[in-house]
């Protein structure tokens, strides 16, 4: 019994090592993991694999250092831990519930993901500014983020957001016209939310499971309507980053493990700088405080 469980443990460790090796940037030449029932590889092969993995990691690290320098960051952003094997249980933040929220099985409304790790999640809303430099910056720095799109702002250039999707960003629902939803009937709220589900599915090929109500305002009808068109989660935010300052929900005016950070697709027309300027402010701050950016969808 004991030897079996020890062997099982060793196999798990070996798999974990391979998986984390593969979790590096794509195209690093890391070999795909062997099936568990394959015959053991000769020692020389294993040594060669280890050398290759080490070289790939070194190359990836050098790429990240030069990207950080090129984009004017004070420090190289920290790398987030691998996606959790067991996802945290997401519940509605206290004080953010509607009547019978949990009993009715409505999508949870939350501002932070429960975790002890020093990670935050970046979410970017609306879609007015379509800055190609922003796409390049996020890809080169390998910073994950989640977009919440409103159709009236993105429809003049779906191609920009298709390129974002091609880079691994999940495109989520922020209504068709960005209204103040609690003022609308159930039927009109449903048109705003389900209509945007249809647009995203048609243009980008996948139906979102995340929805963020405009201005963070919602009522029970909002969450019922969202659920009726396939929404599972309604993430809000705990901090907002602008090009020249931060705003906080908490009294301590600080960032915390698992916080969801909001920003917007905005450019010089809306604020005093570019999207890369905003990202610089965001990354310089969180890196200095020891935080990495993780992918929200990995935790849901
Ligand atoms: Zn918005």
Automatic annotation (TrEMBL):
Entry keyword annotation includes Iron-sulfur: no
Record-linked Gene3D superfamilies: Glycoside hydrolase/deacetylase
EC number: 3.-.-.-
Keyword terms, alphabetized: Hydrolase, Signal
Domain NodB homology: 118-300
Superkingdom of the source species: Bacteria
Spans annotated as Disordered: 27-47
Enzyme class, broadest EC rank: hydrolase
Pfam families registered for this protein in UniProt: Polysacc_deac_1
Signal sequence range: 1-25
Coiled-coil stretches: none
GO molecular-function terms, A-Z: hydrolase activity
Record-given protein name: Polysaccharide deacetylase family protein
Organism of this sequence: Streptomyces doebereineriae
């Amino acid at each position: 019994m004991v030897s079996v469980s020890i062997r099982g443990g060793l196999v798990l460790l070996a798999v974990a090592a391979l998986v984390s090796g593969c979790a590096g940037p794509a195209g690093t030449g890391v070999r795909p993991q062997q099936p568990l029932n394959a015959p053991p590889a000769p020692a020389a092969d294993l040594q060669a694999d280890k050398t290759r993995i080490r070289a790939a990691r070194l190359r990836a690290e050098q790429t990240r250092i030069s990207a950080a320098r090129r984009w004017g960051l004070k420090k190289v952003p920290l790398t987030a831990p691998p996606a959790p094997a067991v996802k945290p249980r997401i519940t509605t933040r206290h004080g953010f519930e509607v009547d019978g929220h949990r009993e009715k099985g409505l999508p949870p409304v939350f501002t932070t993901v429960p975790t002890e790790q020093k990670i935050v999640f970046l979410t970017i809303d609306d879609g007015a500014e379509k800055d190609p430099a922003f796409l390049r910056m996020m890809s080169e720095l390998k910073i994950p983020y989640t977009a919440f799109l409103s159709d009236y702002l993105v429809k003049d250039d779906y191609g920009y957001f298709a390129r974002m999707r091609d880079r691994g960003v999940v495109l989520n629902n922020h209504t068709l016209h960005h209204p103040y939803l609690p003022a609308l009937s159930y039927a009109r709220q449903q048109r705003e939310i389900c209509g945007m589900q249809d647009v995203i599915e048609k243009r980008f090929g996948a139906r979102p499971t995340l929805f963020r109500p405009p201005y963070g305002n919602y009522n029970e009808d909002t969450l019922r309507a969202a659920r009726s068109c396939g929404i599972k989660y309604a993430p809000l935010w705990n901090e907002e980053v602008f090009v020249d300052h931060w705003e906080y929900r908490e009294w301590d005016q600080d960032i915390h493990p698992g916080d969801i950070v909001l920003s917007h697709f905005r450019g010089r027309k809306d604020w005093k700088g570019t999207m890369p300027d905003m990202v610089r402010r965001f990354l310089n701050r969180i890196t200095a405080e020891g935080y990495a950016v993780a992918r929200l969808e990995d935790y849901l």
